[in-house]
Amino acid sequence: MEIYSPKDFPLPFDTAITIGAFDGIHLGHRALFQETFKISELKGLVPLVVTFNPHPRKVIQPHLELKLLTTLEEKLELLEREGFSRVVVLPFTKALAEITADLFVEKYLVDYLRAKAVVIGFNFRFGRSRTGDTELLKNLGQKYGFQVTEVPPVKLEDKTISSTLIRETLKKGEVEKASKMLGRNYTLIGKVISGKGRGKKLGFPTANLLIPSEKLIPAQGVYAVWVYLDFQRFPGALNIGYNPTFDEKELSIEVHILDLNGDMDLYNQALKVEFVKFIRGEKKFSSIEELIQQISQDCQLIRKVLI
Ligand SMILES: Cc1cc2nc3c(=O)[nH]c(=O)nc-3n(C[C@H](O)[C@H](O)[C@H](O)COP(=O)(O)O)c2cc1C
Ligand SMILES: Nc1ncnc2c1ncn2[C@@H]1O[C@H](COP(=O)(O)OP(=O)(O)OP(=O)(O)O)[C@@H](O)[C@H]1O
């Protein structure tokens, strides 16, 4: 996939673009992509996604410490899977946030990106203080010669799907609902780091994952997950929490991989986990035997859920 940045402007071809933060690449975003491909074919234009890095809200409201559904790398990989072979990544800065809607259209959409068609969602806003909307874009489209297509809201159970709603859903542990809005399971990718070495003694060795700090971590608890390792998929029991039975102070994200050869050394490997189902909240047990009993039950249930 070709990734363009401002050093490549103006682009050397006419485009059908869709533009947004596109965190998570959910079903609403995918409706925009389908429309972009349709129009680009009809009009003989290059289909192009224009996205921002960092996420605009991280620049405009840094105090909120927004956690993301996708890192830039993950987003680009998902866009490639959607069928895009070209993506523009615009560095989002305070200066870019200050550009007026009119100037953004003239300079970026028309001059730099050579947009002849623009696909946006029902609630798209752009430019300084979010003053640009579909109506303004349509008016400027007539002036500069690009068509504007607005895509109606894609909903799940009467609620409009959005990255914000998916984040809130994951924070509640509702990973199945999040999967429905994403059109795939939520994933975390992390390097295996060393834990306290306790898991092995309990009979349930775990791979402790180091997750990029910008990623959203679902609610604490135990989950049925798929674990991807060396192009193979394994069922897994994942625990997010503070291991209260042992009074740990740091949040750990650890996965017991079912059906894995016990001696396999996973340190420093990258693991991908896909959240399938919330199993239970994390508990403080009064004895290690009770914890072992519970984890064993969790694994039985997880096996039933996944296989
Ligand atoms: C499926 C699963 C469920 C777990 N549930 C709990 C729990 O409810 N309470 C708790 O204190 N620890 C729980 N743990 C965490 C164990 O205490 C943890 O795996 C053990 O302390 C090993 O830590 P280590 O990897 O740092 O050695 C769970 C672990 C797994 C794999
Ligand atoms: N459910 C949806 N249906 C149709 N279009 C959508 C939907 N969600 C987002 N869009 C459109 O996708 C584009 C990119 O939006 P953006 O990346 O801000 O997504 P978002 O899910 O609304 O994010 P956030 O919740 O962070 O505001 C916008 O044009 C927006 O209108």
Automatic annotation (TrEMBL):
Top EC class for this record: transferase
EC annotation from Swiss-Prot or TrEMBL: 2.7.1.26, 2.7.7.2
Top-level lineage group: Bacteria
Pfam families the UniProt entry points to: FAD_syn (PF06574), Flavokinase (PF01687)
Pathway membership, UniProt: Cofactor biosynthesis; FMN biosynthesis; FMN from riboflavin (ATP route): step 1/1; Cofactor biosynthesis; FAD biosynthesis; FAD from FMN: step 1/1
Catalytic activity as recorded in UniProt: FMN + ATP + H(+) = FAD + diphosphate; riboflavin + ATP = FMN + ADP + H(+)
Signal peptide (residue range): none
Protein name stated in the entry: Riboflavin biosynthesis protein
